[in-house]
């Protein structure tokens, strides 16, 4: 079925990342330079937390996993860096769980590496072209 009409969807604003400890995740992402922009109660038992990279419009919602859902996921989130070597070294020096080497597959694929947050969620960092 082909839909020829446009929708009113205009951007990706947030991507939900499961976390078992929101405070630990806030501290982790802030150590990477993210800014906490939202932290509020959501009902009696939950918090809504958003962190954003300083130059980006799309943020991460750090949310408790639903019952039965996995906490360690390959998020599909791709972050960019202007200097992949410096970013890799910086994350290593912070004690972040990063791949041991930067993957270099050759053009047109940019250099990249994976890192894992405290819940073992995987995110990818690529060199900006």
Which properties best describe this structure?
129 residues; alpha/beta; 2,3-Dihydroxybiphenyl 1,2-Dioxygenase, domain 1; four-stranded mixed β-sheet; 2 helices; 8 strands; 16% helix
Structure description:
Helices cover 16% and strands 36% of the residues. The termini are far apart. The chain is globular, with a radius of gyration of 16 Å. The protein contains two helices and eight strands, in the order βαββββαβββ. It has a four-stranded mixed sheet, covered by helices on one side. The protein has 129 residues and is of the alpha/beta class.
Annotated CATH architecture:
Roll
Summing up helix and strand content along with how strands pair, one would put the structural category as alpha/beta
Rg (CA only): 16 Å
Element-by-element helix/strand order: EHEEEEHEEE
Number of strands: 8
Query: Going by CATH, what is the homologous superfamily?
Result: 2,3-Dihydroxybiphenyl 1,2-Dioxygenase, domain 1
Main β-sheet description: 4 strands, mixed
Unreliable parts: none
CATH topology: 2,3-Dihydroxybiphenyl 1,2-Dioxygenase, domain 1
End-to-end Cα distance, whole Å, is 36 Å
Number of helices: 2
CATH class: Alpha Beta
Number of domains: 1
Characterize the overall form.
globular
Q: What is the helix content?
A: 10-25%
Strand proportion: 35-45%
| Strand order, sheet with most strands | 1-4-3-2
